[in-house]
Structure formats: C-alpha cells, structure tokens
Write a structure and sequence with these properties.
This protein is of the alpha/beta class and 231 residues long. Helix content is 42%, strand content 22%. It has a five-stranded parallel β-sheet, sandwiched between helices. The model has no long low-confidence stretch (mean pLDDT 86). The structure holds calcium ion. Calcium ion is lined by residues 8-9, 51, 53-54.
Length: 231
C-alpha cells in the first residue's frame, strides 16, 4: 500500500515517515500543499495523510482541490493541531475520511489508516480468495495460505504476493511493482524489490509450496506453479 504523507514540520514528517515505512506502508513525504497536489497527480496512492496547517495552502483548500480533481475517492486522514469541534467538522465536511488531533499515538495512526483504507476498498469482505497453484491469497486479510497453513508475511511481502497472484502467471513489470510497493525515496536506495522477492521466495519454499517466483530478465517477475510430485 502506497501512502502520501503531507506534513510541513520537518522532524515530525521524518518521524512519521520512518514509522509508516517500518509499519510496511510505502510512504512518500512532502512538506506543502502544492507538492501534495502534484504528487497525487502522478502516483496512484492508496491513502493520504494530510496536515491541515501547511505553509502555502490551507489544508482545507488542499482537501477541496483533491476531492474536486484527481483524488475524489482517495482515503484521506487529516492531522490537525486545532482542537475545536468546528475544525474537525469542517475537515470531515471538506472530504476527509477521518481525523487525528495532535499529539497522537503512532499505534492510533496505524489503526486509523487501516480503518479508512478498509472502508474504501471495494467490498473486500466479498472479494473471493485468489488462487495460484497450491496457494490461496485472501485480499481482505492479506493472508496467504498453503495447504491450510497461513504464511507469516510482512505487509510488503504480502503486497508483492498479491500483485503476482493477481497477475496469475503473467509477467509483472518491475517498474509497476516498484510503483505499487515503494515510495520514491526507497526505490533509489538499492535493490529493495529484489530483496523482497528473495524473502518471499524463501517463505514460499519453507511452506513447501509448488509456487515459485520466476525472474523474467530485464522485465520483471511472474509466478510459476510446478506440478506436485506424485506421492
Ligand atoms: Ca503543520
């Protein structure tokens, strides 16, 4: 899941960004409203965390522009230091899905973020599990099951597996996978995608799955299912 964090306070932005990445959200962080609007134009985010007190545009104005334009249905969590009930109501009226009043607990941030993205997902409870080989992937819970046993996956490994399973054996282009899984800052820090692929391969092998991830040189990755050996 890829998240845009909009917060002008440098230390708070760094701290929140680090926390979100650690929690498995691919996170881009910007410090003003114009950068936020530009980022949303170019990247298909799954959620946005928006501080209302920004140096260039009022947060309410950013919200209104997002809702009128490229982000009509994007889950948005508003951060506000403003204590009054009026501001919170105005935030929700302007199109926020939820709000958090500063200071807040990081665990509450995670919980609210999960909640607003769940709410706006396309009826995840109704989504049937996706199957490939002996593997089942449940989109609603992001759980992967092999032979009735759940795999212990990090959030990012689960996100990668979901992309590959949805590809159903087609080659998934690495640029697209990086866009879906990582923030800008992370893509340029080395072989993040390769590392996640390697870990996911080990998990599948450890679970005894017949499913393997094949590298398609110069293009990307795809799933393969070996036929199960006769027992
Ligand atoms: Ca601020």
């Amino acid at each position: 899941m890829r998240v845009l964090l909009v917060e002008d306070h440098d230390e708070l932005r760094d701290m929140l960004g680090a926390h979100l990445r650690h929690a498995g959200f691919a996170t881009d962080a910007v410090g003003c409203g114009h950068d936020a609007l530009a980022a949303v134009e170019t990247v298909p985010y799954d959620a946005l965390i928006l501080d209302l007190g920004l140096p260039d545009l009022d947060g309410f104005e950013v919200l209104r522009r997002l809702r009128a334009g490229p982000a009509a249905a994007l889950p948005i969590l508003v951060l506000t230091a403003r204590q009054s009930v009026g501001d919170r109501v105005q935030g929700l009226d302007a199109g926020a899905d939820d709000y958090l009043v500063k200071p807040f607990d990081m665990l509450e941030l995670d919980a609210r973020l999960r909640s607003i993205t769940r709410r706006t997902e396309r009826r995840p409870e109704a989504a049937p599990p996706l199957g490939f080989g002996d593997l089942q992937f449940h989109p609603a819970t992001r759980e992967a099951v092999v032979d009735g046993r759940a795999l212990a996956l990090t959030r990012r490994e689960a996100a990668l597996l979901e992309e590959l399973v949805r590809g159903s054996g087609r080659t998934m282009v690495r640029d697209m996978l990086e866009d879906r899984l990582y923030g800008f800052a992370e893509v340029f820090t080395g072989n993040a995608l390769e590392a996640t692929v390697s870990r996911l391969r080990r998990r599948l092998a450890a679970a005894g799955s017949v499913v393997a991830i094949e590298t398609v040189r110069g293009i990307g990755y795809r799933l393969l299912a070996a036929s199960r050996p006769a027992e």
